[in-house]
Each structure stands twice: as structure tokens, then as C-alpha cells.
Amino acid sequence: MSYQQVAAELAASIRSGQVPPGTRLPTHRDLARERGIAVGTATRVYAELARLGLTVGEPGRGTYVREPAGYDGPEPSRALPVPRVADLSFNQPLAAQQAGDLRRALRGLAAAGDIEALLRQEPPGGRRADRAAVARYLLGRGVDTAPANVLLTGGTQAALDTVLGAVTRPGDVLAVDALTYPGIRLLAAAHGLRLAPIPVTAAGPDLGALPRRTPVRAVYAIPTVHNPLGWVLGRRERARIVEFARARDCLIVEDGTYAFLEPSAPPPLQALAPERTCYVAGTSKNVAAGLRFGFAVLPDTHTAAAVRRLRTTTWGSPPLVTALATGWLSDGTVTRLEQTRRADAAARQRIARTALHGLDTIAHPGAYTVWLHLQPHQRMEHAAALLAGEGILVSTADAFATGPYRPRALRLALANPPLDELGAILHRLRVTLDTIAP
Predict the structure, then answer these.
(1) CATH code for the part of the protein at 3-65
(2) C-alpha torsion 141→147→150→155, nearest 10
(3) pLDDT in tens for each of the 438 residues of the chain?
(4) Predicted TM-score (pTM) above 0.70
(5) C-alpha dihedral over 111, 113, 118, 120, to 10 degrees?
(6) Where does CATH 1.10.10.10 sit in the chain?
(7) CA distance 238 to 230
(8) Which CATH class is domain 122-331?
(9) Phi, psi of 58 (to 5 degrees)
(10) Residues 367, 258: contact at Cβ < 8 Å?
(11) Which of 308, 297, 298 is nearest to 124 (CA)?
């Protein structure tokens, strides 16, 4: 029996769920004995399963079935009719060394003098020492704030929820880009907010297009590495947002989730208008999506309300997660991972530019996303369905649209596929789109 046959049989068992994620597979020697093959052939079997993204080998611990790549949520739209080839709908960047980072960090926590402290309840928003660690880290992003103005949360989405709960009331108007992060739509609906879409241009949001009679309570902005359009607003465009907020006497909610990907960006909005800007970010993209650690920086006038919001909802970040995250912020691990992410994202963009050359795309050269405009005869729902039939999951533009206009486009998230497979996946995507006849 060849290694391809054995690998195909094991791959089918894994994909069908017969062998669930987390299962420890036989050693190379045991697999060789079970299948009647040479140990060298067994090694090639496991190399092939790893190449397919189905297993992960850990020195000294064995080979394990890995969780499926990408976010597998309960939504029917995420159930593909064939085995998944790639999830281009959701970014979960990881680096090869992060499993080792986690083990070392957990061993360090286990050896700490007062590990019992991780089982105690912390103040809503976190302890001062942990908030100070985040404040020190944020200095590198141009956000200069006191620890008292930093609140720790269970992820960036939780930080946004906390801010909106503290600074808005049902019926308030939230100005948002006409194409923006989908999570803000969900939060606005949950808080009973009305959305005022801001037309987008090549240079950024056109705030002047909002009628002066619109009573805007807050502006949600992603000035650095925008999701999904990738822009990095210049100083003039940032100043216009601040001028708008001061003229309308409204707040700014600045999302810095992807800001680490552009270290040379102009100062954040929070630095330009700290008295009316709430800055949110987290570790989902620069460290790991599963860490669920976020933070919000609020002006003095709204910090107490945000603490009350946390007290009635999630309370903040769990102590164990906080200890991991702030430890990595303080010892330089996050800085190192951000450098790795920037190099990785730039490499993926180079691959995407080659694979998608000639198509109508928008992307920052160091971002993890590509905005792909389809041709007039290509409907985005049809395109997404065809790609799903090929095992490729993508996001359609309607997920990002906040107004009635739905551009004919797809958002491609580049972070999940193995780097050496990304070009082939994007080529497959392009070939599939080419099958859509005019």
C-alpha cells in the first residue's frame, strides 16, 4: 500500500469526523505495523496529512488531529458542501512558534508565587497593574493614556460593546463607513442604534456627505489598515474626522484592531482628540483569536459608565487570560509576534498580487485582506456559492455594507491558508470565477 493511499484513507476519516480533532494518532512505528508499511512510508503519510492541514506534530508528544482551519460557527452559510480547502472569510493568523510560547507561559504561571490569585475575581476592567501594562504597550501605537482610563475586556468585540453601552442610548445615531467591519452592525442593532452610512472614497470616508441635520452621537472609524478596504488615512483625513466630531460635538470610536500592521501610520485619532475618542483593540490578530483579550481607552468623562457596563455584563477579561496577555505584552512577545505578522501579511499580499493580477482589487500592501470587485456579469452570491462548491469560503460585500448600496465584491481574508498553498488557492478561486459566463 502506498503512502498516498494510507494518507487518503486517514484524511477521509478525519474529514468525516470519524477521527475527531484532538485525537492522538499512532506513532510512526505503530502506524507502520498496523498498515503493513515501512516506517519511512509512515513518515511520509504523516507529512502528507500535515501538508493537508489535518494534523499537527508536536516533538515529544506525537501527532494530533488538528481543529479545522478557520472559524467554524453555527451559521448555515459556513457549512460547505465539500471538504474545506480554505477559509478566506475570517482571519486567524498564527505563527509556528506560538504553541511553544503558550507552553512556556503556562509553565511560568504555574510556577508563580501566588497562582491562586488567578482564581479570584478582579475589579471590573482589570487590576491597575494589568491596565498599566496595556497603557505602556499602547505608547508604541501613539496612544498616551493613564492606566485608570484603560479597561480590559474579553476581546475587541467586547470592548466595542462596552464603549457603545457606556456612551450611547437606544435611538442614537452612529456614523459608520458605508463599508466597514461587520461586527459594528451587530452591536448597533443590539444597542438600538441607528446607522448613518458615510460614503467612502479612495482617500477615505466623506464625512461632508452626512447631512448637517443628522444628530450624530458617535463616529466609528478604522483609520489605520481599514477592514475591509485596507486604507491608512493621512494626517489631513484624520484631522477632518476630528474637526467633524468637534463641530458636531460627538464622540469618536476608533478601532485599532489591525493598526499594528502599519507601524509608520500617522498618530491615532485618540492622540488628536483624547477628550472625545474611545480607542479599542485587542490581541485577536496580532497574537491569537482564541486568546479573547481586548481593551478600551476612554476619556475621563466616560470611564465610570464603562466600568458600570462591565459590571453588568462580562466584568472584563478572565484573570488567567489577562495574566497570559499582559505577560506577553510586558516581555516583548507581542512585539515579536507583530513583527512576524507584518512580514507574513506582506508576503501574502505579494502572492495575492501575483495570483490576482489584472483583477480589480483594493488592498494595503501589508494587510491580511483583499477587496475584490467582481465583473458586471458576476453576482457575488453566485460567486460565493461556486467557491463554496470548491471548498473555499469567502465573504460577500453585503456583510460589510451599512447602507442600501451593496457593491459587487468579495472580501478575501489571507491569513489562514498555509503560505505555500495560498497562491494555488487564489489561482483556484480565479479559475472558478472565470467559469461565470457573461
Answers:
(1) 1.10.10.10
(2) 70
(3) 788 888 888 988 887 788 888 888 999 999 889 989 999 898 899 888 887 778 877 666 788 887 654 444 445 555 666 677 889 998 988 887 898 899 999 999 999 888 998 999 999 999 999 999 999 999 999 999 999 999 999 999 999 999 999 999 999 999 999 999 999 999 999 999 999 999 999 889 999 999 999 999 999 999 999 999 999 999 999 999 999 999 999 999 999 999 999 999 999 999 999 999 999 999 999 999 999 999 999 999 999 999 999 999 999 999 999 999 999 999 999 999 999 999 999 999 999 999 999 999 999 999 999 999 999 999 898 999 899 999 999 999 999 999 888 899 999 999 999 999 999 999 999 999 999 988
(4) yes
(5) 150
(6) 3-65
(7) 15
(8) alpha beta
(9) -120, 115
(10) yes
(11) 308
Query: Is-contact 408 379, C-beta < 8 A?
Result: yes
Residue with cell 457549512: 79
The three cell numbers locating residue 223: 483609520
Candidate CATH numbers 3.50.50.60, 3.30.1460.30, 3.40.50.300, 3.90.1150.10; the one for domain 76-91+335-434: 3.90.1150.10
Q: By the 8 A CB rule, do 426 and 352 touch?
A: yes
- Boundaries of CATH 3.40.640.10 in the chain? 122-331
Residue 61 one-letter amino acid: R
Identify the CA nearest to 161 among candidates 134, 190, 181.
190
Residue 342 grid cell: 507584518
Q: Cell 458576476, residue?
A: 378
